[in-house]
Specification:
- With 262 residues, the protein is mainly alpha-helical.
- Strands 1-2 form a two-stranded antiparallel sheet.
- α4 packs antiparallel against α7, α4 crosses α10 and α9 crosses α11.
- Keywords: Cell junction, Cell membrane, Gap junction, Ion channel, Ion transport, Membrane, Transmembrane, Transmembrane helix, Transport.
């Protein structure tokens, strides 16, 4: 029997290999396209505390002017960030569903059955890894005999690659379950930030203990979720001392601006 063309086999396999990688990279690609380097631009090197006082004051003024000019215009920025995080969870769940379909419904319970297998008595064990990834299988070979007719031979074939596959997919099972759990908890946390503005000062203060709580509360009360998220991300990316000085000045500026408007 003629062997299949190698090119045809590889054409069928390569998309399956790269599809999970492409799906996992998509949320990052979308966020990079939407964010456009905004945070890196407005930080302007203020993540390093060792700089000249003149340069530091100049950069803080530029950042202050930007935030005051664009106040309450960053809601879409925050929502897109949360959307990309939600997309990561959807992606992980989608990967689990695709793999479960690929293994005929055996993947969802794969890790649980492997853990249960290790606790069973030796005589009662039924290895789920061998069930899904058999190491020995029946093979049928056909070849031309001496007279030119096709002869069929039955034999047993060893599949050494499945020894690697069973370990790889048990790792992927645990990895996907851990990621799905952590992402679910993260999205609940984000939902609390969106739905409960009263928790935002505590989060901002907890991120940088050098910020007085009353300042964190004042800034959080006078900004919407988009501006608050920008301030939170700046808190993560700026030098803590510089950020403390900056947020104190920003609180005063916002208060003065609101008083003028009133």
């Amino acid at each position: 029997m003629a062997e299949p063309e190698p090119e045809v086999v590889e054409e069928a396999r390569y998309p399956m290999r790269y599809r999970p990688a492409i799906l996992c990279y998509t949320p990052k690609w979308m966020w990079d396209a939407w964010e456009g380097g905004l945070l890196r631009t407005i930080v302007m090197g203020l993540n390093v505390g060792m700089c000249r006082e003149e340069d530091k004051c100049k950069k803080k003024k530029v950042l202050m002017d930007y935030l005051l000019k664009h106040i309450k215009r960053h809601k879409l920025y925050a929502l897109r960030y949360f959307f990309c995080e939600a997309l990561c969870l959807v992606n992980i769940i989608g990967q689990l569903i695709l793999m479960n379909n690929f293994f005929d419904g055996e993947f969802f319970s794969y890790g649980l059955r492997v853990m249960a297998f290790s606790n069973q008595p030796q005589e009662d064990r039924f290895d789920p890894m061998v069930y899904i990834f058999p190491r020995v299988t029946k093979c049928t070979f056909q070849k031309f005999g001496a007279s030119g007719s096709i002869q069929t031979h039955d034999s047993l074939c060893i599949l050494p690659l499945n020894i690697v596959n069973e370990k790889t997919y048990i790792f992927l099972w645990f990895w996907y379950i851990i990621l799905a759990t952590l992402l679910s908890a993260l999205l609940i946390y984000r939902a609390v930030i969106l739905a409960a503005p009263s928790v935002r000062p505590y989060i901002l203060h907890r991120r940088n203990r050098m910020i007085p709580f009353d300042i964190a509360k004042a800034v959080s009360r006078k900004t919407d979720v988009g501006d608050w998220w920008i301030l939170y991300m700046l808190n993560r990316n700026m030098d803590p001392i510089i950020y403390r000085e900056f947020i104190s000045e920003l609180s005063k500026k916002i208060t003065e601006t609101n008083n003028v408007r009133e």
